[in-house]
Amino acid sequence: MTQRPSTSRRVVLAAQAVGRPTQATFRVEEVALPPLLEGHVLTRTLCCSADPGTRSRLSSGASYAPPLRIGDPIDGFAVGEVIESANPRFVIGDIVASGGGWAEHAIFPGRGYIQKIPHKRLPLSYWIGVLGVPGMTAWFGLKRVAAMKPGDRVLVTSAAGPVGATAAQIARSLGASRVVGTASGADKAAWLRDEARLDVIVDYKTTTDLIADLKAASPDGYDVLFDNVGNAMIDSVIPLLRPGGRIVISGQLADYNAAAADVPGITNTRYFIASRLRMEGLVVFDDLKGFPAAQEELGDMIERGEVKVREHRYKGLGSAPQAFIDLFASDSFGRRIIEIGGETG
């Protein structure tokens, strides 16, 4: 049995980020672990993830979640082992996926995102990646928001990211007639082509005419744009959408580090009328009740080899800031997993 420690370490916000985050944005601190109250659960973190969406909380400004204050712990998703429980739904030894953040231990008050991992057929880290919020964002973005149907032509931006790569492969598995992705670099393009089996990859950094290349990649246009990049990309693709096209706003990688005044607008709105387009964002926790069934289906796709997973791993809690910084500054790709304690598969 794992001993209950009296203290634990976590990563907190040391300074609000201006532009791209740096090591000075974060610090590691040690805190006391208080006794559990009724309904609470204490977990020992096995691994956690670095998520690009966290960037919107590191500065003041509008977001779907409030900004963090100096000294607040950095949130994020984690796999943990229950080591103490005052909640009848959890027993010592349960393995859970949760919003445990960048910390060696986490206490849950019996509400919020915490889910028992039902099996170990797949690596535990998958439950905060392809079977966690990134994968569920891809799943419900395509199935509920885009109402994707067989034969659709699908464009996924930032297709080498955890959400994008999963969305592109789900689209293929659901019967898309064409799947095109944007990415940068030969390594990403090779993986997306050879492993994820996309039809065409357009390198947005080397192209001299992004719109012409996207049009050539799918001459008949696109039925679905699954966007993880931001306004400039959306505005560029709108004229390429077929009548009845759907835009899923999943993320805004290009805009996260930009000042509000520097974020471009969307100007091609006339196409929404002529082509009867629809654009919708999603917060995946709206679909929380549907997670178990979706995870089962997506897990089956992974086991059949229809969906491939790529991870990039870091060792130790202290590496979490670098894992996050690398999301915006490194050519490496794959779900950023920070191994903290124990076997994660």
Summarize the helices and strands and which ones pair or pack.
Blueprint: E1 7-13, E2 26-32, E3 41-50, E4 78-85, E5 95-98, E6 105-108, E7 114-116, H1 133-145, E8 153-156, H2 162-173, E9 178-183, H3 186-194, E10 200-203, H4 210-217, E11 222-227, H5 231-237, E12 241-249, H6 270-274, E13 278-281, H7 291-303, E14 311-315, H8 320-329, E15 335-339
Parallel strand pairs: 8-9, 8-11, 9-10, 11-12, 12-13, 14-15
Antiparallel strand pairs: 1-2, 3-4, 3-6, 3-15, 4-5, 5-7
Helix pairs in contact: 1-2
Structure, described:
The protein has 8 helices and 15 strands. It is of the alpha/beta class and 345 residues long. The protein has 2 domains: 7-128 and 310-339, Alpha-Beta Complex (Quinone Oxidoreductase, Chain A, domain 1); 133-284, NAD(P)-binding Rossmann-like Domain (Rossmann fold, 3-Layer(aba) Sandwich), CATH 3.40.50.720. The strands form 3 sheets. Strands 3, 4, 5, 6, 7, 14 and 15 form a 7-stranded mixed β-sheet that branches. It starts with 6 loop residues before the first strand and ends in a 6-residue tail after the last strand.
State the main characteristics.
2 domains; alpha/beta; 345 residues; 15 strands; 7-stranded mixed beta sheet; Quinone Oxidoreductase, Chain A, domain 1; 6-stranded parallel beta sheet; Rossmann fold
Total DSSP E strands: 15
Q: Give the total of domains.
A: 2
Report the portion of residues in β strands.
15-25%
Specify the structural class: alpha/beta
- The CATH class of the largest domain turns out to be Alpha Beta
SSE run: EEEEEEEHEHEHEHEHEHEHEHE
Taking the sheet with the most strands, its summary is: 7 strands, mixed
Tally the helices: 8
Backbone shape: globular
Share in helix: 10-25%
* Low-confidence blocks of residues: none
Oligomer: single chain
Q: Any idea what the radius of gyration is? A: 20 Å
From the 3D structure, determine the CATH topology of the largest domain: Quinone Oxidoreductase, Chain A, domain 1
Mean pLDDT: 93
First-last Cα distance: 20 Å
